[in-house]
Structure formats: C-alpha cells, structure tokens
C-alpha cells in the first residue's frame, strides 16, 4: 500500500523514543541498587502472566551504549528514560548510592556525545521497597522523600539535562496499584486509594521546587489521557462515563494546571491540608506531557465478562463499567486503534484549560505487535502522527513526540509477551534487531528536517 507522505511538522519539533528503568535496566547486584516494590511484586508466584524474570529487563544497564547507538541511528532528538529511585537512594531516603548515580552520569554523557537530549523521568512506578512496606503513596512522607531524591539527581545531572519529567502516569499507579491491586504494591482499596493520588501530586509539586532549586529547568510531567466515550443513553451510563472521565483525566490534570480538584467531593476525600498542598501541586510547569493509547468506552456497572479495565476484571462495587470498543482494528494487546482519539484528547485539553495549558509533548504513544516485519505498527504510528498534525493545525501547541518504546521490554504483569519496541529484543540472548518500524520512523525524522 502506498501512503501519502506525512504532513510537515514545524521546524524544531522534537522527535524521540521512550523507555523506563524497571522495564529495561535489569538489577545487577554490584551496582548497589535496592529492591523496588515492583521487584518484590513481580517475584510473587503468579503475578507475571508468562512467568518471565523481571530482574533481567533488556540488560540496558550493561548495554546502554548499544541502545544509544540505536537512537543515534534513528536520528532521534531526545531519549525519554527513567531514573530508578531505588538505584539512587536504595532505601527511599537516607544514604545515596553513588554507583547508581554514576550509571546515569555515564548514560547522560553518552546521549550528549551523540547529540541526543536526555529527558529523564524521575518516577516510573518503581517505589523503593522500604517505602512501599511503610505504606508507599498512601503516606504523606513518601512525597517528601521523593523531593529529596529529585534534588539528589538534579544536583548531579542538571548541568547536562535540559528536559525533566517528574512522574509518569500517577493515575495508573493509583488505579492499578492501590485501587484494583493488579500492579505493585497490590492493594485493593477502591476509592480508599485516593490518598495515593494526592500524595503523588504533592510529590510532583515538591519535586518541581527541588529541581528548580538545584538549577534544573524545562520541567514537565507525563500524564495518561483517554477520551471517554459514553456506552449508552441511560442515566447510569452518563454518570459512569462522567465519573470515569473525572478520575482518569481531570483528577490529576486539574490540580496541576488549575490548583483545584475537578470536584469538591474529591477534594474533601483527600488527606492533609489540601488547600495548601494545591498551591504546591500547581507550581508553574514549562510543558505538560500526554500519554495516549486509545479511548475508553464507559457506562453503568455491568456483569458481563467484557466489563474490564485493560483486561482486568472490574469489581462489582464500582459505579462504572468499561466496555469493549467495537469496529476498530485491535493491537496484539487487544487495544482499539483509534488515531483520531489523540486529536480528540488534545483538543479537549486545549478547550478545558485554555491559556493555563503549557506547551504539550506526546510523551508516550505506541502499540504492541509481534514480529520484526511490523507493518501494523507502522500503520498505527502513521495514523497517530497524522492525527497529531491535525490537532496542531487546529491550534494545539505540541512541541514534540516520543514513541513508546525504543526496544521491546518487560511489560509489567504481561512479562515479555507484549512487544512495543521499534527494536526487537531476543529475551534469551538480549540481542537487538531493528524492526521495519525503526527504519520507517528514521525516515520520518529525516524527512522532517529537509
């Protein structure tokens, strides 16, 4: 099939790829890394669907130069990676592991040597196990410990890192880790998980302060967003969709961008001096990151088997139900491929926040497909870049795009069975093989610079 060339993106548009520490690095004992809550969770029998070993990752800790060379081969402008909190501060607070910091020092130097912007995320779900044992994000103290850790990283790297991300997807940590128990730390608290949301938001605000105090600039956050479609016309369907929209989209964006929760009922459920905390949470950002994969169809609670969240069975106590979206192609993960949902979400953000919305980056967008000859991934990325360009033509200020992910990795509870990478990883030998989509994305980046 012959495609029309992609439309032209503006000069200076940032092209990148992403990864995370837990999913790629591995955990060599000689480095002094402490255990994370995810290390412990993944080691519990039955937690990882394919039984694979989370501790290997993709061997990135030892093979980072190889992966930076792959980024250079793409012509990528930037690499979004994450710093492992327990690698830098093994106990979550207290003693700093100099060997862990040295690893990120070497990585940043390697990226800079190749002309690639380092864009570290300070938290991509790997809470130090000691903090998880003490309550994790349910405890206010965790937010302060996170800010201390952010300062440690910035003091070492701020002279060479021109782009910073505080947290990745606090909604998923809250929903999957604390409400539904499907991810670490495996808590099943339903709406009693809301303190985890507030304390992550507080950690974000405190870490913005800490980063700026350490000389860092160009600071943002990566937040997952999904257009919420209403499953039916009943009052229960409308209520369920509106509630889910509030929880998944605005419970995190509103405090960050407006200094208020989207509903005073949610504000009343949050712990601590909420009004004072919101002043910290809403510290001005230089940019705001959007992670987009697909829309979500939501209605009243239902009892049929399709009532699920990302493949997880929904508890009957919840006042909404997730439905399967029909009529679209599906990824190997079973997620619907809806490129225009990206445009829909970006224009919704622009309409809701107006001048309070800083410039945007797409900090994650990608899909799971098997195979090195991955035409389906090319089609997915092509469609989403066209939808992104349309949103920009409609006035949304988007400055760059990071695809998820550079390499196949350890996909949380799915293990190594889901492949999101532009580069195939043999999970036995850890050998890297660029896919057809790698070459396609390379050509997209090259064409954008002509």
TrEMBL record:
Task: Give the EC number.
Answer: 3.2.1.21
Q: Which Gene3D superfamilies match?
A: Glycosidases
Instruction: Name the GO cellular-component terms.
Output: cytosol
First-level EC class: hydrolase
According to the record, the segments passing through the membrane are none
Classification via Pfam families:
Glyco_hydro_1
Sequence ranges of Basic and acidic residues compositional bias: 46-57
Q: Which reaction does it catalyse?
A: Hydrolysis of terminal, non-reducing beta-D-glucosyl residues with release of beta-D-glucose
Keywords (A to Z) from UniProt: Carbohydrate metabolism, Cellulose degradation, Glycosidase, Hydrolase, Polysaccharide degradation
The molecular function terms of the Gene Ontology recorded here are: beta-glucosidase activity
Any one Gene Ontology BP term: cellulose catabolic process
Q: Which SUPFAM superfamilies does the UniProt record give?
A: (Trans)glycosidases
Q: Where is this region: Disordered?
A: 25-57
Residue positions annotated to bind substrate are 23, 124, 168, 293, 404, 411-412
Concerning its family, UniProt says: Belongs to the glycosyl hydrolase 1 family.
Q: Which NCBIfam families match?
A: BGL
Please report the name of this protein according to its UniProt entry: Beta-glucosidase
Q: Which organism is it from?
A: Streptomyces beijiangensis
Q: Provide the taxonomic classification.
A: Bacteria, Bacillati, Actinomycetota, Actinomycetes, Kitasatosporales
């Amino acid at each position: 099939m012959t495609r029309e060339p992609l439309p032209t993106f503006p000069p200076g548009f940032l092209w990148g790829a992403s990864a995370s520490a837990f999913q790629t690095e591995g955990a060599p004992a000689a480095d002094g890394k402490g255990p994370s809550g995810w290390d412990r969770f993944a080691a519990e029998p039955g937690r990882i669907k394919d039984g694979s070993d989370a501790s290997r990752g993709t061997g990135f800790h030892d093979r980072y130069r190889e992966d930076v060379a792959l980024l250079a081969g793409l012509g990528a402008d930037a690499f979004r990676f994450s710093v492992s909190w327990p690698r830098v501060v093994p106990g979550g607070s207290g003693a700093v592991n100099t060997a862990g910091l040295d690893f990120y020092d070497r990585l940043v130097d390697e990226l800079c040597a190749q002309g690639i912007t380092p864009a570290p995320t300070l938290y991509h779900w790997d809470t130090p196990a000691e903090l998880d044992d003490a309550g994790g994000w349910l405890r206010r103290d965790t937010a302060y410990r996170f800010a201390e850790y952010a300062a440690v990283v910035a003091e070492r790297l701020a002279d060479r890192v021109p782009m910073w991300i505080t947290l990745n997807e606090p909604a998923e940590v809250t929903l999957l880790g604390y409400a539904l128990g499907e991810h670490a730390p495996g808590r099943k608290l339903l709406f009693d998980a809301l303190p985890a949301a507030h304390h992550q938001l507080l950690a974000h605000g405190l870490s913005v302060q800490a980063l700026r105090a350490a000389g860092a600039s160009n600071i943002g956050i990566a937040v997952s967003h999904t257009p919420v479609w209403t499953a039916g016309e009943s009052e229960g369907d409308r209520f369920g969709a509106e509630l889910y929209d509030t929880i998944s989209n605005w419970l995190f964006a509103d405090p960050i961008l407006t200094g208020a929760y989207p509903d005073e009922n949610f504000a009343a459920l949050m712990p601590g001096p909420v009004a004072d905390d919101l002043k910290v949470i809403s510290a001005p950002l230089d940019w705001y990151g959007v992670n987009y994969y697909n829309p979500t169809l939501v209605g009243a609670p239902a009892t049929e088997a399709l009532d699920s969240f990302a493949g997880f069975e929904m508890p009957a106590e919840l006042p909404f139900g997730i439905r399967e979206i029909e009529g679209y192609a599906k990824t190997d993960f079973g997620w619907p491929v809806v490129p225009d949902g990206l445009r829909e979400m970006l224009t919704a953000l622009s309409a809701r926040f107006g001048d309070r919305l800083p410039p945007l980056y797409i900090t994650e967008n990608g899909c799971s497909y098997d195979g090195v000859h991955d035409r389906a991934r090319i089609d997915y990325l092509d469609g989403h870049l066209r939808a992104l360009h349309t949103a920009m033509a409609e006035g949304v200020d988007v400055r760059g795009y990071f695809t998820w992910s550079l390499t196949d990795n350890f996909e949380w509870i799915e293990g190594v069975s889901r492949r999101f990478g532009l580069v195939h990883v043999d999970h036995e030998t850890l050998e890297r093989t660029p896919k057809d989509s790698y070459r396609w994305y390379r050509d997209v980046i090259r064409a954008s610079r002509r």
